[in-house]
Design goal:
The chain is an alpha+beta fold. It folds into three domains: 65 residues, Uridine Diphospho-n-acetylenolpyruvylglucosamine Reductase, domain 2, CATH 3.30.43.10; 153 residues, Uridine Diphospho-n-acetylenolpyruvylglucosamine Reductase, domain 3 (2-Layer Sandwich), CATH 3.30.465; 105 residues, Uridine Diphospho-n-acetylenolpyruvylglucosamine Reductase, domain 1, CATH 3.90.78. It contains nine helices and 21 strands. The strands form six sheets. Strands 1, 2, 3, 5 and 6 form a five-stranded mixed beta sheet that branches. It has a five-stranded antiparallel beta sheet with strand order 7-8-13-11-12. A four-stranded antiparallel beta sheet has the order 14-20-19-18, covered by helices on one side. Helix 5 crosses helix 6. The longest helix is centred in the last third of the chain and has 19 residues. The radius of gyration is 21 Å and the shape is globular. The protein starts with 7 loop residues before the first strand and ends with a strand. The model has no long low-confidence stretch (mean pLDDT 96). Bound molecules: flavin-adenine dinucleotide. The site of flavin-adenine dinucleotide has 31 residues, from strand 3, strand 9, strand 13 and strand 14.
């Protein structure tokens, strides 16, 4: 029988989440192989675990997490099919997302460059269909392998079955933590077609004097912008954007714009309108707000921060107050982007 992975009992999660919250995990099981996973399931008491990758999109509200945490550390990446210009590659769930992007560029493949420097793991990327600078993984993700914690079977889901949407996928619709992602496949290209719809990205390339960028140039430009703009979790705890940009019916957007003509609006899916959550929060007066050690970043209204020593409950209370205030002022209900773990 395969031995169980070594469990870490009553350990701090401070280094396992980018908010730097020092919640305690009753049981954290590092999962380094598929055998670890099978062994854990065989020995499990039936209590549903929490699946954790890099912890860059979670908020631990509870001070102590009683449910077992499966900490995904599966490694490996490979070219699966290199015939032709379109190349199939795969990576195990515990690989660092950014390292995987850099590896794909080293193979001469493009498609992921705009998603450079997004924190976290490959396995979490499909969960919210990560996106940045006009690209989401739905554009290149071909299939996702899952381990069903209920029946113990491995299955491949096609991209269509993943039902990707804006910061959304089937994994957010299913009961949480039932389907553990073990591997992800991407269809990348040897022929580079830049996606440069974002003015900021074009400006960054122009500043560097690059007229006909390579995929590597685009990746470097994205990294430069992100390093300049986004707060580094190693310096100040955060989980990136805390709220999703709301997608509303055109009539709702029209009503808002009638009273706030400077409110930015963008085309959304299915004829709907995407509004800027950051604008709503800033206009409601929360940018730079600080309550104890919990706060709203002074340059980014969308980023909630831990100035040092905040609890998850304090950050969550601040988030709820912001959400209620924005709803009262603009009639728009914001939804958190990170997973909020309360038990
Ligand atoms: C500074 C900063 C900038 C960011 N910028 C962006 C951005 O530009 N675009 C963007 O989309 N996101 C962004 N994010 C959010 C975050 O990087 C992504 O959501 C990332 O995919 C989370 O990866 P993770 O491994 O840290 O996941 P975790 O935080 O560990 O988990 C997130 C969710 O995925 C689930 N999960 C994790 N691994 C698995 C698995 N193997 N199988 C099943 N479920 C799993 C967890 O249960 C949880 O529900 C940013 C975060 C930070 C801190």
């Amino acid at each position: 029988m395969t031995p169980l992975p070594a469990v870490i009992r009553d350990g701090s999660l401070a280094r396992c989440n980018t908010f730097g919250l020092s919640a305690v995990a009753a049981e954290r099981w590092p999962v380094g192989s598929l055998d670890d996973l099978r062994a854990w399931r065989a020995a499990s008491t039936g209590r549903r675990p929490i699946v954790l990758g890099g912890g860059s999109n979670v908020l631990f509200v509870a001070e102590r997490i009683e449910r077992p945490i499966l900490h995904i550390q599966l490694r490996g990446r490979a070219v699966v099919d290199a015939a032709g210009d379109s190349v199939l590659v795969e990576a195990a769930a515990g690989e660092s997302w950014h390292e995987f992007v850099l590896w794909s560029l080293e193979q001469g493949l493009s498609g992921l460059e705009n998603l450079s420097l997004i924190p976290g793991t490959v396995g979490a990327a499909p969960v919210q269909n990560i996106g940045a600078y006009g690209v989401e993984i739905t554009h290149t993700c071909e299939a996702v392998e899952v381990f069903d914690l209920e029946d113990g079977a491995f299955r491949w889901l096609s991209s269509a079955e993943c039902a990707f949407g804006y910061r959304h996928s089937v994994f957010k619709r299913l009961p949480p933590d039932q389907q553990l992602i073990t591997r992800v496949r991407f269809r990348l290209s040897r022929r580079f077609e830049p996606v440069l719809g974002y003015g900021e990205l074009r400006a960054e390339l122009a500043r560097a004097g690059i007229e006909a960028p390579s995929a590597r140039d685009v990746s470097n430009a994205v990294c430069a912008i992100r390093r300049r703009k986004l707060p580094d979790p190693a310096v100040i705890g955060n989980a990136g954007s805390f709220f999703k940009n709301p997608i509303v019916e055109p009539a709702v957007a029209d009503r808002l714009i009638a009273t706030h003509p400077d409110c930015p609006r963008f085309p959304g899916p299915e004829g709907r309108v995407k509004l800027a959550a950051g604008w709503l929060i800033e206009r409601a007066g929360w940018k730079g707000h600080r309550r104890g050690a919990a706060g709203v970043h002074e340059a980014h209204a969308l980023v909630l921060v831990n100035h040092g020593g905040a609890s998850g409950a304090e950050i969550w209370q601040l988030a709820q107050d912001i959400r209620d205030d924005v709803a009262a002022k603009f009639g728009i209900r914001l939804e958190p982007e990170p997973r909020v773990i309360t038990d």
